[in-house]
Amino acid sequence: MKHTSRDIRTANRYEVLRHIIAESPTSRQELASVTGLSLATVATLVGELLELRMITEVGFEDSAGGRPRGLVAVHASGGTLIGVDIAETYVHVELFDLALNVLARTEEDLRPGEHRPEQVVGHVAAAVDSVAARAGAAGGRVLGVGVSVPGQVDRDTGIAEYAPNWDWHDVPLLDLLSEHIAHPLHLDNPLRACAVAEQWFGAARGRGDTVVVNLGTGVGAGLALGGGLHRGVSNSAGEWGHTTLVLDGRPCHCGNRGCVETYVGAPGIMLNLREACPDSPLLRPDDQTATIEALARGVADGDPVAVRVVRDTARYIGAGVANLVNLLNPELVVLSSWVARRLGGPLLEEVREAVRLHALARPFAATEIVLSPIPSDPVCLGAATFALEGTLRSVGQRNGVRPGRTASGAR
Amino acid sequence: MKHTSRDIRTANRYEVLRHIIAESPTSRQELASVTGLSLATVATLVGELLELRMITEVGFEDSAGGRPRGLVAVHASGGTLIGVDIAETYVHVELFDLALNVLARTEEDLRPGEHRPEQVVGHVAAAVDSVAARAGAAGGRVLGVGVSVPGQVDRDTGIAEYAPNWDWHDVPLLDLLSEHIAHPLHLDNPLRACAVAEQWFGAARGRGDTVVVNLGTGVGAGLALGGGLHRGVSNSAGEWGHTTLVLDGRPCHCGNRGCVETYVGAPGIMLNLREACPDSPLLRPDDQTATIEALARGVADGDPVAVRVVRDTARYIGAGVANLVNLLNPELVVLSSWVARRLGGPLLEEVREAVRLHALARPFAATEIVLSPIPSDPVCLGAATFALEGTLRSVGQRNGVRPGRTASGAR
């Protein structure tokens, strides 16, 4: 059986805390009303969250004619969470309170070629130490550290199975990290981090089946289906970037040809630009970020080459998103990650039009397509959310198997 | 919340009955062991199934040193189920006992152009009457009628929203059928019928996430994810046939170009043959079935054109299945429906090789690809299973909303 009553209790605990984070203070009655859970169930879940010191009692409100209702709110200083975004060229680390406000952030650059696991782990450890020191100053114990690493990840064993851009194979990343970090660790990849960030704090909160399309150097899709994340049998679901859109098309580093990523990942967009205008001044060789920013400015200024390249790119994205719409019939598609953020509204408009042209009319009509509303790094936020979920899963699991992994020396 | 305790009880009821159908007689202890449910839960579920007369007590077996264990088995004559497969050129109707053995079958041909809803409904009603008469002779009350109709279906309202090959739009099919058929009716489409047939009686029984790829005149994918069917927000998930594989490729009747279906649906395969050898004697214009059968015989005989066309077709199927593997990371892919059955083992081998070439190595290694083991029409079987599931869902729902739809005059 896939769904146990434990799964349901955990999902309900997520749901209640999500609502409290979204709207504090609130009452048990209000929570029962918005979640559809019984008042008794809500009271039990609220009790657990109070015991975890994740929420706190903050007074009473009048109820029409009845007894005053107790109010609860996030106990922002009840603990802290750390989110780690390991990317190709940098490590971002952010410290959050329990309302998922950023308390501190730090960034370590990875120099070109600096990709050996122990080098990357050294940067992560230094950055985590740096923000964890500030957690002490903020008075908050660190409840957990979520780590996002690109590629395919076994979150149970903590092994980074395959990171295509670094040629990592079966790196025991969590074991390496736990030599330096004495907090519970939770490993996953950026697709799932972005998806869970949208579920808790972004466009997907309170919505049904959602696909979070990550547009960055690599591309992929986080699948929030049936109230949870669809991970697949080996936690590698979501490799939309490596679905074929143009049979026998551009070669991809994965060995296939015509993958979505070769047309809409940042290097693919640079190639779209080079094909449209080989000596365009918008093209900054070897600098993806500068090129995407130049394209964004070009579109704003009405530069015809920039407009054309963004439209071409949007056509590829739209055809690929239409495949997701036809196959999965989601309620919501969220465009996330840095390329989507930088190209913004003009890209969104072109993508919507391209999806309309490629998708079946009925699933298209049932799907809303939006930009991620998350203002900060959604990968750090999502990674921290994995640590939050891990803490919530552990409720009542005394002496049992811990979710995620607990590093040696952790409390 | 997506998953309620009612959902879990229903899923557990399915699971227990599935095991009893697969292996009768069996004991509550054995059922608890194979399902992982507690003995108390199993005892409750078995009690419900006994009360529904779907199973029956059939004696005792010795247990080593303990009390004899009560045995239960499917009560094959406890009722009957009818499955209806409305296809482009025919209506198949089959009558099943509760072990889902076929008791009777009948077929009505639809003449070319005979596609008006009332014409189709007339054929369905006649065929259902015919097999229902034999249900009476078999001593079994008809518990329900499941109906599969191509295209997009709203199973709650019973409306056939869109059937592309017939240009049906928003046909109130269940209302039309209920004027003739006085049993509970359950409407859905062939993708989901084939998927549920594999879950209950085929390759997916007891397995994790499974994609059932239907290869017929139209093509699509039934998605058995997280222990249930993934339907999407408007019950149109699975339109794999209308995902783009060749951007700007062959025109598709859906309005898009390069859809998977234009290369691997039966008419697409005929076009592959025509392109490979315009005047091949294997080609039977206007007869898909005869052409596919000629191709199958040609492959068996080593005809180079047939071998090449099946290989070309398998390459398209394989690239499309690789997209499903990369995106969904399923444990199992089942090739179903009549084109897969007729081209059989040689097609399967070529498809496996093509998937290997197009998919990422790790999700490919985690996925098994098989032919459907279901010997009869999987759509009729799956449609009857919808009626079975509907009966199981209704347990304890007295005076409440009925699952599926109950026709006027139904008991």
Characterization of the model:
- With 411 residues, chain A is of the alpha+beta class.
- Chain A folds into 3 domains: 5-74, Arc Repressor Mutant, subunit A; 79-194 and 378-406, ATPase, nucleotide binding domain (Nucleotidyltransferase, domain 5, 2-Layer Sandwich), CATH 3.30.420; 204-371, 2-Layer Sandwich (Nucleotidyltransferase, domain 5).
- In chain A, 42% of the residues lie in helices and 21% in strands.
- In chain A, the strands form 4 sheets. Chain A has a 6-stranded mixed beta sheet.
- Residues 398-411 of chain A have low confidence and may be disordered.
- Chains A and B meet through helix 1, strand 13, helix 10 and helix 12 of A and helix 1, strand 13, helix 10 and helix 12 of B.
Averaging pLDDT over every residue of chain A, what do you get? Answer: 90
Q: What's the number of extended β-strand segments of chain A?
A: 17
Question: How widely separated are the two ends of chain A?
Answer: 33 Å
What is the total number of structural domains of chain A? Answer: 3
How is this structure best summarized?
2 copies of one chain form a homodimer. Chain A is an alpha+beta fold. Chain A has 13 helices and 17 strands.
Which features would summarize this protein structure in a list?
6-stranded mixed beta sheet, 411 residues, 5-stranded mixed beta sheet, homodimer, 21% strand, Nucleotidyltransferase, domain 5, 3 domains, alpha+beta
Tell me the layout of helices and strands.
Two copies of one chain form a homodimer.
Chain A: H1 5-22, E1 26-27, H2 28-35, H3 39-51, E2 55-61, E3 69-74, E4 80-86, E5 90-97, E6 102-109, H4 117-137, E7 142-148, E8 152-154, E9 159-163, E10 168-171, H5 173-178, E11 184-188, H6 190-201, E12 210-215, E13 219-225, E14 228-229, H7 261-264, H8 266-276, H9 288-300, H10 304-328, E15 332-336, H11 338-358, H12 361-365, E16 368-371, H13 378-393, E17 405-406
Parallel strand pairs in A: 4-7, 7-11, 12-15, 15-16
Antiparallel strand pairs in A: 1-3, 2-3, 4-5, 5-6, 8-9, 9-10, 11-17, 12-13, 13-14
Helix pairs in contact in A: 1-3, 2-3, 6-13, 8-9, 8-10, 9-10, 9-11, 10-11
